Every structure is written in C-alpha cells, then in structure tokens.
Amino acid sequence: AMEKSYVSVFLLLVAISCALAAKDAGKKEAKETKETTAKPKLPQTLSRGWGDQLIWTQTYEEALFRAKHSNKPLMIIHHLDDCPHSQALKKAFAENKDIQKLAEQFILLNLVYETTDKNLSPDGQYVPRILFIDPSLTVRADITGRYSNRLYAYEPSDISLLHSNMQKAQKLLKTEL
C-alpha cells in the first residue's frame, strides 16, 4: 500500500510539472509572438519620430564611442515629448528631405532626459536644443542657433539655419582633423 501511494504521489508530481511546463511554453510562445509583431517599431523608439529611416544611437556613451571610431560628427537633440516647441521642431526636422539626407552623415542621438555631462548644457538645460560634437569629442560651442538667450535652440522656421550648421559641423571636421 505504501508503495502504491509513493507511485501515485510521484505520478501526480510528474503530471503537475508537465502541466506547468506546458503552461510556461504557452506563455513563452505568446511573448515571442508579441515581440516579433512589435519588432518593426524598434527604430521608431530610438528615432522618436525625428527620422525613422536614420540610424540612431541609444545612449550618449554609445554615441561618443561611435563618433570617435567612425570619424563622424555627433548631433545631439535634446527634446521632450510633451513640449510643443520640441514637437514642432521634430516635425520640421523629420519632414525636411535635405536635413534627413544630411543627417545620414552624422552619428545621431536624441535625448528626452538630461545627461550628467555639463558640456551638453553650456548655457542651460532647455529644450529643444541641438549640439554638435566632433570626433575628437569636443562640443562645438561655436555652432549655434540664432537666439542669444538660448544658443542651441532651433525653431521650425530655423530649419535652414540648422541645415547650414550641420554642413558647418561637417566642413570643420574635414578642415581641422
């Protein structure tokens, strides 16, 4: 009798563990299908709407590393999702074919949070602001927008100035390095 109860307890444990394994496998499958269907949205999360076909870096550290090793200038866009000025600039930036084409020549990073690097806020932490960093990892404080109180701010009407500043960031690169 004792042996029979051991066998039945053993079989019960086997049945439970099989049921749990099947349940886990089902969860895993559901999770995998969720992840695979969400995959095409991956670039969107990094671009945050600034140019979905562009290659964006995830972190400031990664961006610095890539700028240094690719010998390309880095363009950092500080913005906030709930800021109307950021949204307006993003729309102008994303819709401007020349900007999007030129942006391919840059290491790109857009941040919705402040970094601890004080060099990225030379005149304050406002949004939107765009800074350029050359491959020697020097912040180009000389490439500014048209506002004296927010040197690195751009508005949708400044998109051509931004384009020429992007060209300037590239020209300086070629002549100085």
CATH topology of the domain at 67-170: Glutaredoxin
Taking the alpha carbons of the first and last residues, their distance comes to: 87 Å
Percentage of residues in DSSP E strands:
5-15%
Principal-axis shape: elongated
Mean pLDDT: 84
**What is the N-to-C succession of helices and strands?**
HHHEHHEEH
Can you give the helix content as a percent range? 40-55%
CATH class value of the domain at 67-170: Alpha Beta
The biggest beta sheet, please?
3 strands, mixed
Q: How many alpha or pi helices?
A: 6
Q: Report the structural category.
A: mainly alpha
Any guess at the CATH architecture of the domain at 67-170?
A: 3-Layer(aba) Sandwich
Query: Could you tell me the number of beta strands?
Result: 3
Q: C-alpha Rg, in Å?
A: 25 Å
Family: Belongs to the AGR family.
InterPro entries: AGR/TXD, Thioredoxin-like_sf
Keywords: Endoplasmic reticulum, Secreted, Signal
GO molecular function: dystroglycan binding
Description:
It is found in: Endoplasmic reticulum; Secreted. Its main location: endoplasmic reticulum. The protein is mostly helical and 177 residues long. The protein has a domain at 67-170: Glutaredoxin (3-Layer(aba) Sandwich), CATH 3.40.30. Helix content is 51%, strand content 8%. The protein contains 6 helices and 3 strands. The chain has helices spanning 2-38, 42-47, 60-70, 84-95, 97-103, 159-176; strands at residues 74-78, 107-111, 129-133. A 3-stranded mixed β-sheet has the order 2-1-3, covered by helices on one side. Helix 5 packs parallel to helix 6 (159-176). The longest helix is centred in the first third of the chain and has 37 residues, at 2-38. Residues 33-43 have low confidence and may be disordered.
